[in-house]
Amino acid sequence: MMTLEKFEEASELVKKVTNPTKLVFSEYLSTQTGAKVYLKPENMQHTGAYKIRGAYYKISTLTEEERNRGLITASAGNHAQGVAFAAREFGCKATIVMPTVTPLIKVNRTKSYGAEVVLHGDVYDDAYQYACKLAEENGYTFVHPFNDLDVATGQGSIAMEIVQELPTVDYILVPIGGGGLITGVSTLAKMLNPKIKVIGVEPAGAASMTAALKAGEVVELDSANTIADGTAVKEVGDQNLPYVQENVDDILLVEDEPNICNFITATLSAHDYRVSQAHTGKDALSIITSQCPDLILLDLGLPDMDGMEIIRQVRTWASIPIIVISARIQEQEKVKALDLGADDYLTKPIGTSELLARIRTAMRHSNRLNTDSLLYKRPFQAKDLVIDFDKHLVTVGGQETHLTQNEFKIIALLAKNSGRV
User: Fold this and answer.
1) 222 DSSP assignment
2) Given 137, 158, 173, 258, which is the most exposed site by the fewest CB atoms within 10 A?
3) Of 185, 131, 123, 125, whose CA–CA distance to 153 is shortest?
């Protein structure tokens, strides 16, 4: 059972391993909505996400015997890093089972905290089943990423901080994957102030909580497809559902496709690149022919023209880098696209960090990368640097960053020349 006393305990405990994430007022979003909009920058945590809160509090409730058996979990990346980091703090072993499609950067960061990583399955649910099997075979203690009320209590510490910093908050918007975050945040928010409205935000392609609320019970989706890889969950937690039913006021569904385009457009535009969008194959070919862009992100599912034909036509006259994005996991299609001249082939869902990394690589290989752009440059100061030449790991002021080989070489060279390594 989730109680105010446990939320208060968790809020104090997690301060040992979390960074203060003060609310950030968004002038842009406030102007767009006509309201005062604040962001809670949990991406500034040591592990890049709020998941460290639930993982650390959960592990703190375990007995010494349970910790000494070793911990295991399944995760698409953020909970994995949270458990790995927390396990290191408690001095216990951690094994993390991750889907094979997990972005490499999340895999490497999880390993950097000392955990053993096992890749298995295409989605979280596949990894979860395998992790349960390993736990049973080896006697590990399982730390569930969301279907655990102690984990949800740890995540709920976010609501405590929001209300303490902004007592007049009217609405809290919370993303939904398996339901642990919204369970903790909504339950504590209602305890502190029943007038606060808690709104869930869920990918339309992985709307497992919406389906559960409609059915009145947990249901398993046939698939969970979304660019937000951390929310690609086919079945929400049965321990979470009753709290969501009681405390969440509404859930909004977000479609991937228009938001992928808008995100890419906004991000690349902000980094000094000209961006054009096309929603049909013929429009895409017309824009490519007339504007000769620096990069082509090609969805093979565009209507009215086969994406392969677009690749074929472009390659008759231009060497523009082409990154194919497909919803179909077909090896023959991938081979055909690459044979026709595509530079890369990505299968949905793909995380935004990996997408940007692939864009950088394609642009760099074609000598079209704008080296004055923030997309290329990573802010750093050549002092107090710790450089791990084997892992391509740069630590600045305690913050670890994994870089591509070329980026690493550049930063290492600059640091050496500064004499401050």
Assistant:
1) S
2) 137
3) 185
Residue/partner pairs of 214-218 with CB below 8 Å, 24 or more apart: 217/241
In order of 155, 230, 231, the CA distances from 224 in angstroms are 23, 11, 8
Residue bearing the bigger pLDDT, 184 or 368: 184
User: Sorting pLDDT into bands at 50, 70 and 90, what band is 248?
Assistant: very high
Q: What are the two backbone dihedrals, phi and then psi, of residue 298, each rounded to the nearest 5 degrees?
A: -115, 120
For the chain, helix (H) and strand (E) counts, in that order, are 18, 15
Rounded CA-CA distance 231/124 in Å is: 9
Q: Which residues pair with 393 in a beta bridge?
A: 388, 402
Which pLDDT score, from 0 to 100, does residue 395 have?
Answer: 63
Length of the chain: 421
Q: Distance between CA 86 and CA 271 in Å, rounded?
A: 35
SS3 content of the chain, % helix, strand, coil (to 5): 45, 15, 40
Q: How far apart are CA 146 and CA 235, in angstroms?
A: 11
Q: What is the pTM of this model?
A: 0.68
Q: In what order do the strands lie in the sheet with 197-203?
A: 171-175, 197-203, 250-254
Cα atoms in the 13 Å half-sphere on the side-chain side of 159: 34
Residue from 415, 389, 420, 419 nearest 402 by CA: 389
89-109 pLDDT, tens digit per residue, is 999 999 999 988 777 778 888
- Region 294-302: mean pLDDT is 80
pLDDT of 21 higher than 50: yes
What is the pLDDT at residue 373?
43
Contacts 24+ apart (CB under 8 A), 31-39: 38/166
